[in-house]
From TrEMBL:
Domain of life per record: Bacteria
Enzyme class, first EC level, given as a word: oxidoreductase
Protein name (Swiss-Prot/TrEMBL): NAD(P)(+) transhydrogenase (Si-specific)
Organism: Armatimonas rosea
Keywords: Cytoplasm, FAD, Flavoprotein, NAD, NADP, Nucleotide-binding, Oxidoreductase
EC number(s) recorded for this UniProt protein: 1.6.1.1
Occurrences of domain Pyridine nucleotide-disulphide oxidoreductase dimerisation (ranges): 350-457
PANTHER family reported in the protein's UniProt record: DISULFIDE OXIDOREDUCTASE (PTHR22912), SOLUBLE PYRIDINE NUCLEOTIDE TRANSHYDROGENASE (PTHR22912:SF93)
UniProt subcellular location: Cytoplasm
Length: 467
């Protein structure tokens, strides 16, 4: 065993939280060690989650000729000839480029990268089991170990053609039919991209509402568009039993459903939620307990019950987004090293959901505002009535704004359609700047653009307010 080395900060995990936390501390002049046990840098965001799934979405849109079909009625479909290698090639290239970027960032910030699995010896001492064992001492430790897919026990995990969001990237052939268990964000995103490729997709979701955290108009519109893609929903429902059926008309995995009947598909994707990666950290040695589903409890500064140990990213649970994970880690490190560079997590976080079509949201929904007893007025503008929307063939998208009635301050923005996850930032910035209708009325937008819909949704709200 090597002798102990001392650092201002030890970071465990090189995903978005670990990378940005380490960089923030290095920028504050601290000596930082970053430990990663995986083969690749970048965690779920670079290797199995965010970037891979978004790249596969673009590939599916290209191979299926989806946009050309909608716009020109022209079948530019390549999917019949496409191999699984065609499907996965770009994903691999994007992931590799991101890993190189992360390695460059670690190097340029002077962060020491240590390969191996970290576990606590005590609150300030971390052991790394790698090619050789090392012991590090840190004034501060940031736990950024992320999460992994959770598998309901009913699935015979390890059998062929049963995947989760990690292993789906090792797909051996494009399925004919797919059962997606869990209509959460991962389930909906993958359901859309496979349906676009012509796969017969069934989503089984235990709740009765799809993505219930979204504004109801958005979640209904999204479900409608997913049904139009050919996706079948069984909700609320759950799989009670899974068994091979090689005798029936359709060969594959037969899933018996709680509320009656069964369905068969050649492939299953489990997308039923995630668990925190804490089990091998020996947190008890540091004086910490683990919560439900392996999650770490932290305060508003992302400090655990042991003040020198911080947690950020998926390991602390909600909202489990790459975007939020980075911000949490930066904030945690500014708190740990008493820097006032950033003191608070933004009070409103955006969601970008990369379904087909895309959906994005920030702030209060109409329903959440009413539950809080707020007096509100909403305005809508459809992309079909927008010049840019016409040009790009965006027939179903819309923007919905939620204003406080008395002063017309914006408190929520909800968008479905092309570029929704980009457009949402206009509304998000307005909310953070405590602005509202007056700003959208006054702004001159480029024409033709989808952004201009902000003005028309505002006019709609003003009209409703005066009625
Ligand atoms: C399919 C999918 C799609 C997603 N899409 C989006 C999206 O569009 N937008 C978005 O914002 N978010 C998205 N997310 C969520 C996003 O990927 C996560 O929120 C984000 O990766 C969490 O970052 P993290 O740094 O907390 O953890 P991770 O990215 O999971 O990284 C944790 C790292 O810690 C390492 N590690 C674990 N234990 C140890 C140990 N003991 N020692 C050393 N290293 C260890 C792991 O190997 C890993 O590299 C998606 C997730 C999935 C699964
Ligand atoms: N675009 C994005 O921002 C994005 C994309 C993907 C993932 N993520 C993040 O990753 C996290 C995990 O995503 P997820 O979709 O796996 O989890 P989730 O918790 O969001 O959704 C899981 C869904 O599965 C359902 N479910 C659970 N067990 C079931 C069962 N036995 N049968 C039927 N349905 C069942 C739940 O009701 C829930 O709707 C999310 O919190 C999300 O923030 C974000």
């Amino acid at each position: 065993m090597e002798e102990t080395t001392r650092y201002d900060l030890i970071v465990i995990g090189s995903g978005p939280a670990g990378e940005k936390g380490a960089a923030q501390a290095a920028l504050l002049g601290k000596r930082v060690a970053l430990i990663e046990k995986g083969q690749h840098l970048g965690g779920a965001a670079a290797n199995t989650g965010t970037l891979p799934s978004k790249t596969l979405r673009e590939t599916a849109l290209f191979l299926s000729g989806f946009q050309q079909r909608e716009l020109y009625g022209m079948d530019a479909c390549l999917r019949d000839k496409a191999t699984v290698q065609d499907f996965l090639r770009r994903e691999r290239r994007v992931a590799e480029t991101e890993r190189q970027r992360i390695a460059g960032s670690i190097g340029s910030h002077g962060i020491e990268l240590i390969r191996g699995a970290a576990s606590f010896v005590d609150a300030h001492t971390v052991k790394v089991a790698g090619e050789s064992e090392r012991v590090l001492r840190g004034d501060i430790v940031l736990v950024a170990t992320g999460s992994r897919p959770w598998h309901p026990p009913v699935f015979p995990w390890g059998q062929p053609d049963i995947y989760d969001s990690d292993t789906i990237l090792n797909l051996e052939r494009i399925p004919q039919s797919l059962i997606v268990t869990g209509g959460g964000v991962i389930g909906c995103e993958y359901a859309c991209l496979f349906a676009t490729l012509g796969v017969k997709v069934t989503v089984i979701e235990a709740r009765d509402e799809l993505l219930a955290f979204l504004d109801r108009d958005l979640s209904r519109a999204l479900k409608e568009r997913m049904v139009a893609l050919g996706i079948v929903f069984r909700m609320p429902d759950e799989i009670e039993n899974v068994a091979r059926d090689d005798e029936g008309e359709e060969v594959g995995w037969r899933c018996a459903l709680r509320y009656g009947g069964s369905i068969v598909a050649d492939t299953i994707l489990i997308a039923a939620g995630r668990s925190g990666n804490t089990e091998s950290l020996n947190l008890a040695a540091a004086g910490l307990e683990v919560g439900k589903r392996g999650l770490l409890t932290v305060n508003e500064s992302f400090q655990t019950a042991v003040p020198s140990i911080y947690g950020a990213g998926d390991v602390v649970g909600f909202p489990s987004l790459a975007s939020a994970s980075m911000e949490q880690a930066r904030l945690a490190m500014c708190h740990a090293f008493e820097s006032n560079f950033t003191g608070h997590l933004a009070p409103i976080l955006p969601y970008g959901i990369y379904t087909i079509p895309e959906a994005s949201s920030a702030g209060e929904t109409e329903q959440s505002a009413k539950e809080k007893g707020l007096d509100i007025v909403c305005g809508r503008a459809s992309f079909a009535a927008n010049a840019r929307g016409q040009i790009i063939g965006e027939q179903f998208g819309f923007i919905k704004l939620v204003f406080r009635r008395d002063d017309m301050r914006l408190i929520g923005v909800h968008i479905i359609g092309e570029s929704a996850s980009e457009l949402v930032h206009i509304g998000l910035t307005a909310m953070l700047a405590e602005q509202g209708a007056e700003l959208f009325v006054r702004t001159c937008y480029n024409y033709p653009t989808l952004s201009e819909a902000y003005k028309y949704a505002t006019y709609d709200a003003l009209k409703r307010r005066s009625c």
